[in-house]
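Weekly sync, protein design subgroup
Attendees: M.S., D.O., the rotation student, P.L. (late)

Item 1: inverse folding check
M.S. brought a backbone from last month's batch and wanted to see whether the design step gives back something sensible before we order anything. D.O. pointed out we never logged the input encoding, so this time it goes straight into the notes. Structure tokens as presented (270 positions):
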């Protein structure tokens, strides 16, 4: 009994440690305080500033378009890599899994700098084309998509694909109708993770973005160095919105996956 309570208490402390800073930031996003400290009054001024300032609106729109486009490419690449590795021989699968871990644990500054040298310096691709930035974001996110999809593939009956082929389905048809639905929740989780990584990334974007373009992260860093208090506090509101969107997306994905799992269990019982 005591161990159970200790486990619950420890879990609560961990969750508090993880989410307390975000909750504090969310609270201050509804105040008129220029700095984290005394709360004078509650207001929606920061949110109004966020959506009525052209500079912020253009930055957010550009960041969202970049995040969605790079996440889509990273999801395709990471999913194809995971499926290919899953149906490969044991040694090949282990090699691909190990190589996928390298960019995951690698420092973002190394990834950003190396992408800049390879694409901009060696291949001579101009940063103004946005190609280095998009490729850098995809390289950053694709390994995490791989990690999100692979566990779902391992839960799947690997013989289903071969059975579909034996029944006359083409490889492409079997992929779309058998494998993709089974791994859908992992693919969606990978996509959400890729979007979040793109919005959060600073180093890769710094080394590969056009000089006149700012992502949310690069803009936040530059804004905190300036003296525009109104812009700084509006970014608190932006951080709160991003957090709520990510949480909502993950809840929807997990609920859908749980519902699908229960339905599959019912079918098996029948």
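Designed sequence read out in the meeting:
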């Amino acid at each position: 009994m005591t161990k159970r309570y200790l486990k619950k208490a420890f879990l609560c402390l961990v969750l508090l440690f993880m989410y307390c800073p975000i909750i504090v930031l969310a609270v201050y996003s509804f105040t008129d305080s220029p700095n984290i400290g005394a709360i004078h009054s509650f207001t929606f001024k920061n949110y109004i500033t966020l959506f009525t300032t052209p500079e912020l609106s253009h930055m957010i729109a550009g960041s969202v378009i970049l995040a969605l486009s790079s996440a889509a490419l990273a999801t395709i690449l990471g999913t194809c890599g995971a499926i290919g590795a899953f149906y490969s021989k044991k040694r090949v699968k282990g090699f691909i899994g190990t190589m996928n871990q390298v960019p995951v644990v690698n420092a973002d500054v190394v990834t950003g700098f190396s992408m800049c040298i390879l694409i901009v310096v060696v291949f001579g691709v101009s940063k103004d084309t946005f190609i280095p930035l998009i490729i850098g974001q995809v390289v950053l996110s694709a390994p995490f998509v791989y990690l999100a999809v692979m566990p779902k593939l391992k839960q799947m009956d690997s013989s289903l694909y071969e059975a579909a082929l034996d029944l006359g389905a083409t490889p492409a048809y079997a992929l779309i109708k058998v494998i993709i639905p089974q791994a859908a929740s992992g693919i969606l989780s990978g996509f959400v993770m890729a979007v979040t990584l793109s919005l959060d990334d600073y180093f890769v974007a710094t080394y590969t973005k056009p000089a006149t373009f700012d992502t949310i992260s690069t803009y936040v860093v530059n804004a905190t160095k300036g003296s525009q208090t109104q812009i700084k506090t509006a970014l608190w509101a932006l951080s709160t919105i991003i957090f709520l969107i990510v949480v909502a997306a993950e809840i929807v994905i997990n609920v859908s996956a749980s519902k699908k799992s229960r339905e599959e269990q019912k079918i098996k019982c029948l």
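Discussion: The chain is about 80% helix and 0% strand. The chain has one domain: 41-269.
Action: P.L. to compare against the previous round before Friday.
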